[in-house]
Amino acid sequence: MKALVEHLATGGKLNTGELGELLQAATTDGALLQLLRNTAVRTARQQFGFGVYIRGLIELSSYCRRDCLYCGLRRSNRTAERYRLTADEVMECCKEGYALGFRTFVLQGGEDGTHTDKWLETLISRMRSQYPDVAITLSLGERSEESYRRLYEAGANRYLLRHEAADSTLYASLHPDSPSIEHRLRCIEALKRCGYQVGMGMMIGVKGQTINHIAQDLQLIAQYECEMVGIGPFLPHQATPLGGEPAGELNTTLAAVAIARIMLPHALIPSTTALATLTPTGRCEGILSGANVVMPNLSPQDVRAKYAIYENKASWGKEAAEGLAALEQELATIGYHIDYSRGDHKMYNTKE
Known about the structure:
The chain is α/β, with parallel strands linked by helices and 352 residues long. It is built from 14 helices and 9 strands. The longest helix has 19 residues, at 30-48. The chain is globular, with a radius of gyration of 19 Å. 49% of the residues are buried.
């Protein structure tokens, strides 16, 4: 197995079976997992040094037209507390975040039909006009290519659209009312054509997922050469059909993050809020597996608990925008620091 790690580290490629074997072994063999993580950290440091980029997360809306089995925002969840931020509330979040030093804002929300192209264009144009030096990231689900293009032209730079499952059967089982994985990949391809820095990714440990599925996911992410990779553990929400399932396993998640880093050395990879929710040391564990981004919560404090994709989401303290000093202290314990720059993918300027 060490030979497989070395092969990846020198730019070699593994087939899906070899990736699966490496993941399986790393999940149970502590020494192999540590080798994998050390290799990923070395790879990340060669590209980014000891800096960790911060993104200010603004959760636009907890309304969603989809009914995904794992998500607390699913439309069938009658107990969910729904809200929508106004454009002025979003701008107030940006004002606060900019003063704190954020130079990337992430607008995330369920697939809310009230977020028309016109409404989003107006909001993004306001953000771009008032904060011309920031990066604007969107995470608003599946839309048409025309919609993506309009939002890009309004001033958005990046788009997060996790593919969730490369295997079509697994994807369909988790998204019973959604288009196919092929449709989602067409959306990702459309985003690339528009010029976005694009993010893919998946949960680890969701019901029905096997090690081979995760290996397929990693192959797909590498194939698309995406600029951002979001990988975190599955966390259950009791008001969903998967509410009684166990959370995703930490070591498997860290191994997947590490492999993604080695396969895509320049990628922007967050140490996810889900990792920080799974275990108190999750954020640092992710960074020590090759992640180089964290996403503190900039949403108004009275709505943070309402954006409940899973339960007990970490959105306070070091996971909150107002907790940057505590985050800086935590990063210092593992030899890292906050990098307050925009943190674009290194190939971004060549695409402009």
